[in-house]
Amino acid sequence: MENNDVIFGKNAVTEALISGNREINKILISKNIHTDNKIARIKELASERGIVFQFVGREKFQPYDEFNHQGVIAQISPIKYMDLDEFLQTKSHTNSSLVILDGVEDVHNLGAIVRTCVCAGVDGIIIPSRRNVQVNSTVEKTSAGAINHIPIIKVNSLVNAVQTLKDNNWWVIATDASAKDNYYDVKYNDMNFAIIMGAEHAGVSKSLLKQSDFVIKIPMQNSFNSLNVSNALSAIIFEALRQKLTEKRK
């Protein structure tokens, strides 16, 4: 695709067009799909940005039939990762937030996490360059295009990244099923904080648990303790948002 990634799905393509922060080479739309409001919006946005869109036959979509492409594909420049130091220069105010992913393996979980973070107003997501799923077309579609609306920070070492955050007066909060404190016991207001979410099976690594200022859990009923990582993050990050909004009303 000549230095282009491929994204698919109406929402993902629409959000990439709206964000305007990535170069889109071409948009392909299937001749066989009904032109609904979302397709009309894609055509409108593409025309405004001078981006070519073509109506093509089904054969162009066959390589992507395993995905729910919805008859829309865009050739787009790869996502640009942000440097942690650059991020810290732009987010120095109180009550900024980050999510750190330690070994998340499932692309659908990453996409759901990105979508949750954008909806809850999280300022950025840190992922390691190794032993963690990376951003791809499935992540873009699962996030419904939200990947274009939040900085993704890639680092070589999570341990070093956490130490950098602590050196810059960020509080680090790790999640662990055996923690003593519940997630709603932390006062998230009036501090910059980063929440570490662990791998689907292994959890947060011991080295990062030791570095953390708080270790929290989500209390579970009965003996079933297998909440999906994206669902777990949603509970925590929206509790932080609830506290923030409650404080503003006072």
Q: Can you lay out the helices and strands and say which pair or pack?
A:
Blueprint: E1 5-8, H1 10-19, E2 24-30, H2 37-49, E3 52-56, E4 72-76, H3 84-90, E5 97-102, H4 107-120, E6 124-128, H5 137-142, E7 152-155, H6 158-167, E8 170-175, E9 181-182, E10 192-198, H7 206-211, E11 214-217, H8 229-249
Helix pairs in contact: 1-2, 4-8
Overall mean pLDDT: 88
How many structural domains in the coordinates?
A: 2
Q: Identify the CATH architecture of the largest domain.
A: 3-Layer(aba) Sandwich
Shape: elongated
Structural class estimated from helices and strands: alpha/beta
- Low-confidence regions: none
Describe this structure in words.
It is a single chain. By secondary structure, this protein is α/β, with parallel strands linked by helices. The longest helix has 21 residues, at 229-249. The strands form 2 sheets. The chain has a 7-stranded parallel beta sheet with strand order 7-6-5-10-8-11-9, with helices on both faces. It has helices at 10-19, 37-49, 84-90, 107-120, 137-142, 158-167, 206-211, 229-249, and strands spanning 5-8, 24-30, 52-56, 72-76, 97-102, 124-128, 152-155, 170-175, 181-182, 192-198, 214-217. It has 8 helices and 11 strands. It has 2 domains: 5-76, Ribosomal protein L30/S12 (60s Ribosomal Protein L30, Chain: A, 2-Layer Sandwich); 84-249, 3-Layer(aba) Sandwich (Alpha/beta knot), CATH 3.40.1280.10. Helix 1 (10-19) packs parallel to helix 2 (37-49) and helix 4 runs parallel beside helix 8. Helix 2 links the parallel strand 2 and strand 3 (52-56). The chain starts with a strand and ends with a helix. The mean pLDDT is 88.
